[in-house]
Amino acid sequence: MDWVLGIGVLLIGIALIIVAVVLIKPLGKLTEVLESVKKTTDTLPSTVADITGQTQQILHTSNETISNVNKQVSEVTPVFQIVGDVGEASREVTTAALDRSVRLKERVGNASGFVQEKEYKGLYGLVTLVFYLMQQKKELKKFK
Fold first, then answer.
1. CA distance 60 to 55
2. Longest dimension (CA), the chain
3. Are 124 and 108 in contact (CB under 8 A)?
4. Is residue 89 a contact partner of residue 80, using CB atoms and an 8 Å limit?
C-alpha cells in the first residue's frame, strides 16, 4: 500500500509541475502589468502637483477677471440708470402728448358732428384750421 501512496504523491507532484509551467506565461504578463502600474504611480505625485499648480493659476486668473468685470459693471451702472431715467421722462412726455391728442380729437369729433348736422363743411374747415393754428401757437408759447 505504500507504493500506492507513493504513486499518488508522484501524480500530485507532476500535476503541480504542469500547473507551474502553464502559469509561468500569465504570471510573467502580470509582472509586466505590475511594473507598469508602479511606473505610473511613481509619476502621480509630480502630475498631481502640476495639475494643482495649473488649477491655482486658473483660479487666480478667474478671480482677477471677475474683479475686472465687477469694476466695469459698477462703472456702467450709472449710465444705465441715466438711460432708464431718460426713457421714463420721454414716456411721461409722450403720454402727456397722447392725452392732449386724444382730447383734441374728441373736441374735433364733436365739432365734426355739428358741422354735418348744419352742413357748414367749407366754413368748418376754415374755422378748424384757424382754431388748430391758434392752439398750436399757445402750446409753443408754453414750452418756451
1. 9
2. 150
3. no
4. no
* Alpha-carbon span 128 to 111, nearest angstrom: 9
- The dihedrals phi and psi of 120, each to the nearest 5 degrees, come to -110, 45
| Cα(77)–Cα(108) distance, integer angstroms | 46
Cα–Cα distance, 6 to 13 (Å, whole number): 11
Q: Which one has a higher pLDDT value, 96 or 70?
A: 70
Contact 128, 111 (CB under 8 A): yes
Contacts of 134 (CB under 8 A, 6+ apart): none
Note the pLDDT tens digit of each residue in 30-83.
999 999 999 988 888 888 899 999 999 999 999 999 999 999 888 888 888 888
Q: How would DSSP label each residue in 7-63?
A: HHHHHHHHHHHHHHHHHHHHHHHHHHHHHHHHHHHHHHHHHHHHHHHHHHHHHHHHH
61 vs 56: CA distance, rounded Å? 9
Q: Report the length, in residues, of the chain.
A: 144
**pTM of this prediction?**
0.42
